[in-house]
Amino acid sequence: MKEPIYRRVMLKLSGECLAGPDRFGINPGVVDYVAQEIREVQEIGVQVALVVGGGNIFRGLAASSRGMDRASADYMGMLATVLNGLALQNALEKVGVDTRVQTAIHMQELAEPFIRRRAIRHLEVGRVVIFVAGTGNPYFTTDTAAALRAMEVGAEIIFKATKVDGVYTADPLKVPQATKFDELSYIEVLNRKLEVMDSTAISLCMDNSFPIVVFDLMEKGNFKMAVMGEKVGTLVRGERNDAP
After folding, report:
1. What is the pLDDT of residues 197-217, one digit of tens each?
2. Whose CA is closest to 85, among 119, 117, 58, 50?
3. Dihedrals φ, ψ of 104, to 5°?
4. What would the pLDDT profile of 229-239 be if each residue is shown by its tens digit?
5. Average pLDDT, the chain
6. Alpha helix positions (H), 175-243
7. What CATH number matches the domain at 8-237, 3.40.1160.10, 1.20.1260.10, 3.40.50.150, 3.40.30.10?
């Protein structure tokens, strides 16, 4: 049987994914589906860490653009990620996956504080670790939190889950003639202003030569295929194999 090519991975999941067709809030069916996809990966011996966004409940940047203080709006967004993290923990534990939620903002009745060595130990013994509340600081997105936590816990790659099957020249849902990239370099992502992850997260990955795969989590089995090394989505790394 083919072995997975990664031992420890970071899954970055947007809050919008959890809303499903509802576009707002937490869709129980979608959360259960995501839990099953994670379980399949964990069952083949891959350690899974997870950072979840909160855009299905509250978007700090959108609120600040309407006049709310940016720091206050961002803290509210961090709290939204906690709700999503707890929903995912519940769904994972219902399917038999031992899970811990670690938060960058202390709320001891709900979750553990983020402690790097404890998070690594959880992963080593087969628990899924869900990191919530971003980095704990305003002005930083959950994309940046995913890059930071991935490096802190020794993950080998970030899998950025989206609703499309990779990175395109334009939004394929709005521009049907948009073409998909199989591979991109960090510099290309920054120069083209492609919506892979925010520029801070991309720069952090570039500085540390940390690969990113952007893929469609809603396509059943994609996550497992990706950790097995099969070609799924778009790979972002230092150099493109097909670059001139």
Report:
1. 999 999 999 999 999 999 999
2. 50
3. -80, -15
4. 999 999 999 86
5. 92
6. 186-192, 199-207, 222-227
7. 3.40.1160.10
242: confidence class by pLDDT, cuts 50, 70, 90 = very low
DSSP string, 199-215: HHHHHHHHHTT--EEEE
Nearest to 86, CA basis, from 48, 35, 46: 35
Structure tokens at 24: 């707002």
The number of CA neighbours under 13 Å toward the Cβ of 74 is 13
* DSSP H helical ranges for 54-172: 60-65, 70-94, 116-124, 142-152
Element (H, E) at 100: strand 99-103
Please give the single-letter amino acid code of residue 63: A
pLDDT band, very low/low/confident/very high, at 36 (cuts 50, 70, 90): very high
Handedness of CA 183, 52, 111, 37 (dihedral sign): negative
CA-CA distance, 129 to 114, in Å (whole number)? 10
Reference 100, options 134, 131, 65; nearest CA is 131
CA atoms within 13 A on the CB side of 82: 22
Q: Is the pTM of this model over 0.90?
A: yes
Instruction: Specify the 3-state DSSP secondary structure of 146.
Output: helix
